[in-house]
Amino acid sequence: MTTTLPAYDEVVARYEPVIGLETHVELGTNTKMWCGCPTDFGGEPNTRVCPVCLGLPGSLPVANKAAIEATIRIGLALNCSIAEWCRFARKNYFYPDMPKNFQISQYDEPLCFDGYLDVEVNGELVRIGIERVHLEEDTGKTLHVGGATGRIHGATESLVDYNRAGIPLVEIVTKPIPGTGALAPEVARAYVTELRDVIRSLGVSDVRMEEGSLRCDVNTSLNKPGEEWGTRTETKNVNSLRSVERAVRSEMLRQASVLDAGGKITQETRHFHEDTGDTTPGRSKETATDYRYFPEPDLVPLAPDTAWVAELKAALPELPRLRRKRIQQEWGLSDLDMQSVVNAGAVELIEATVAAGTTPAAARKWWLGELSRRANETGVELADVGATPAQVAELQGLVDAGKLNDKLARAVLEGVVAGEGSPTEIMTNRGLEVVSDTGALTAAVDDAIAANPDVADKVRSGKIAAAGALVGAVMKTTRGQADAKTVRELILERLGAQG
Amino acid sequence: MSDLTRLSAAEIAGLVAAGETSAVEVTQAHLDRIAAVDDRVHAFLHVDTEGALAAARGVDERRAAGEEIGPLAGVPVAVKDVLTTKGVPTTVGSKILEGWRPPYDSTIVERLRAAGTVMLGKTNMDEFAMGSSTEYSAYGPTRNPWDLERIPGGSGGGSAAALAAYEAPLSIGSDTGGSIRQPGAVTGTVGAKPTYGGTSRYGLVAFSSSLDTPGPCARTVLDAALLHQVIGGHDPRDSTSIPAAVPDVVGAARLGATGDLTGVKLGVVTEFTGEGAEPGVLAAFRESAEALAKLGAEIVEVSCPHFKYALPAYYLIAPSECSSNLARFDGVRFGLRVGDDGNRSLEEVMSLTREAGFGPEVKRRIMIGTYALSSGYYDAYYGQAQKVRTLITRDFTAAFEQVDALISPTTPFVAFPIGARTSDPYQMYLADLFTIPTNLYGGPAISVPCGLSEGLPVGFQIMAPTMADDRMYRVAAALESTVGTFTPPAL
């Protein structure tokens, strides 16, 4: 298609978007939803399976209590009501990555419902309504071999790996989100980011979009101001936070161009393409399967004890947004500075470094400076850069004790990242410690004075500022291993000047 | 030597425990009997000769070593082919699972092994337990030892016929709408459907999850109770399993055998003793009820007005669940695969596999169930049937406020000739008219032989409240003590 898309500004001037997000989170329980198989990512195909998760004849599911607990905690963190009584339901459809040809899910009785999540967009709080949070099982993975696209169409062979089948999956569905206007793409991204942080803070999933433990479908529609909401499309294959934003934007532009041309939006599933930033149609919802939901007869109803739910609620960790507010105050950061800490993914790292005895300012300097630069260069997450908060705190301790200056400290940090050991070990092994032997320093100072008689005279005559050139010369001969302040004091003393 | 195949399980267990016979001798006697008669009866789909003899040797060795050998050690048992048996073929009477050897044992089979029983093999059944005559087995019908031209009931015709033909003293069945009790009734044997959740469904290939109940089959009430005791009880692998001990069914059977029912109040289900049942069946039932009265039981009439809706409700709920349960048979992971020639699409292969693998009755029920669960029809069919289920449960609850147990004939008619009801599904469905309400309610019920009509056995059904399985055993044993057991003509 070579249709020229309208400009985004024009689109949001003419249309109002309504978005909605369906997020799937793979829980990090030790075992699968209905059996005792492990849930670790990867593994040789079809090695983490048993009669239950393979859906062999005669096998039966038994619900994983840890998964139910994790789901309730997610629901509580999203301000949901928790069902006093609900059931699992079978969603029937034929697909080879579904061992039983039905998925055990929840239908009209979700475990958690009617909540909200507040997210910050451009300093403004936006309240996203949560329709439901329910628990289901993941499917296996199908690999289509021989086709050009990796999709089933055109493939000569399809291989199925059931290792993922039966891993507990939580589905979180927002209510429709109207009224965000031009900010719709940012709101979508901010919501998924915040949701990810909330779930991570609960410790129930590693929520890694790249590994598929957090998956997102984005619903988008456009309507003219004052008119009813438009027909929505559901965009799948949105695999990063950036893609969430791009997918909404791209779908808004595409729908606007269709509507501008007098066309109608088809209710359908679309696929997002990371490379082009476009969406292409998938299966049409109009011919969608009738899933023939009915209550799962192999499982008993779920009736979480209210006292237990209350306990879980009381034990919830501080929510990321509130925690960030508190930390920002404690660290005395401006909104902008805090934002850069958050964007760098450095909140927890700085917090841990501060806990190990470093001042917030120093901790922030290391993580957002030298270490962020290295992370960017090597393309890894800041947390995986190779230095731990404890090491950073130790490094700063050496600086505070006068054993390292800034330049030496950066050299030691390089050694830390390279895995050479603790900062103290590296300092000793590489001989990077500040020269504090005044005898050796005095000799270096005398050499510098002798080599620069003009400068020395200026200092003697009261031009104290000129001493800087002598300090520089001493630092040069000691290859930076001297403490500049000590050097300066020595020079002034030798020249009989007052500092 | 007396014929070991004519002994009860209790007698065999006693002789083996006392060392008066060996498990191998007992097992060999039954294997010989199977070899002699099963080409005519066709109770077995698979005889595990080597496995049985190995298990029997194990029992004899443990006994010789003075080890614990289990309460039913050395007693042969035949297992309905609906239960998975590790490494031993499990077909559910269907072509779609031909040749499948499960990698795991069902809980029932595990418990049978732990009790020291010797599994002889797998018995014939209507495909996926759907039927009342075993004529819908993909491997040919089982014949009734009382008259080889007649059906042995179904779906567990193989398990019942194996008992009546003296091929096994014990067998396991599964009862979704009467598949243990009705075959018991028409073969003159005892068949008990435990409380739903009282026996584990783990490893029972599902037909209708909310109704399927595995249970014991035997030639005497005490034997059924002994088997029930061994296979029953909580199983953490089945979420619907009741976390409670098995009621004392063995004690109840022994108490009942004393022939005293003083203080027991029984309710004759009015709706099941009018038209719809053969006169000979009704006559045998009435005589037996009078016999129970002579043993001290008080007999009253009890109306259960919603029982008449049980059959239609059942034929919505069971097919609905089956349409989903049987979806996994698609040729992808196990069993039959048809049409995988490298050119056909996945959907075509699934479709061809199911077309070839399922028989007509299974297809009929999958289609009914798929329709009943469809969006727009769900409320009118599945939803409505669930409401009827609630009303039937209320009928039972109300009845058990008046009486200790309900009684009725097990099935409206004696064993019918092979082929007599296959052309009209409804005529076949009527065989379960009296047994289905219990499944919808979830309580226990037992069929015990009570007489003959036209020379064929008639079954007497006793229905008890949930988890009061012991109550039905007491009444059944009392009835047995007064009417005796029934032996078919020699094969």
Automatic annotation (TrEMBL), chain A:
It comes from the Bacteria. Its EC number is 6.3.5.-. Keywords: ATP-binding, Ligase, Nucleotide-binding, Protein biosynthesis. SUPFAM superfamilies: GatB/YqeY motif, Glutamine synthetase/guanido kinase. InterPro entries: Asn/Gln-tRNA_amidoTrfase_suB/E, Asn/Gln-tRNA_Trfase_suB/E_cat, Asn/Gln_amidotransferase, Asn/Gln_tRNA_amidoTrase-B-like, GatB, GatB_Yqey_C_2, Gln-tRNA_amidoTrfase_suB_CS, Gln_synth/guanido_kin_cat_dom. It catalyses: L-aspartyl-tRNA(Asn) + L-glutamine + ATP + H2O = L-asparaginyl-tRNA(Asn) + L-glutamate + ADP + phosphate + 2 H(+); L-glutamyl-tRNA(Gln) + L-glutamine + ATP + H2O = L-glutaminyl-tRNA(Gln) + L-glutamate + ADP + phosphate + H(+). Residues 348-495 form the Asn/Gln amidotransferase domain. Allows the formation of correctly charged Asn-tRNA(Asn) or Gln-tRNA(Gln) through the transamidation of misacylated Asp-tRNA(Asn) or Glu-tRNA(Gln) in organisms which lack either or both of asparaginyl-tRNA or glutaminyl-tRNA synthetases. The reaction takes place in the presence of glutamine and ATP through an activated phospho-Asp-tRNA(Asn) or phospho-Glu-tRNA(Gln). Belongs to the GatB/GatE family. GatB subfamily. HAMAP family: GatB. Heterotrimer of A, B and C subunits. PANTHER family: GLUTAMYL-TRNA GLN AMIDOTRANSFERASE SUBUNIT B MITOCHONDRIAL AND PROKARYOTIC PET112-RELATED (PTHR11659), GLUTAMYL-TRNA(GLN) AMIDOTRANSFERASE SUBUNIT B, MITOCHONDRIAL (PTHR11659:SF0). This is Aspartyl/glutamyl-tRNA(Asn/Gln) amidotransferase subunit B. It comes from Micromonospora solifontis. The gene is gatB.
Automatic annotation (TrEMBL), chain B:
The keyword Transit peptide does not apply. This is Glutamyl-tRNA(Gln) amidotransferase subunit A. It comes from Micromonospora solifontis. It comes from the Bacteria. Its EC number is 6.3.5.7. It catalyses: L-glutamyl-tRNA(Gln) + L-glutamine + ATP + H2O = L-glutaminyl-tRNA(Gln) + L-glutamate + ADP + phosphate + H(+). HAMAP family: GatA (MF_00120). InterPro entries: Amidase, Amidase_CS, Amidase_dom, AS_sf, GatA.
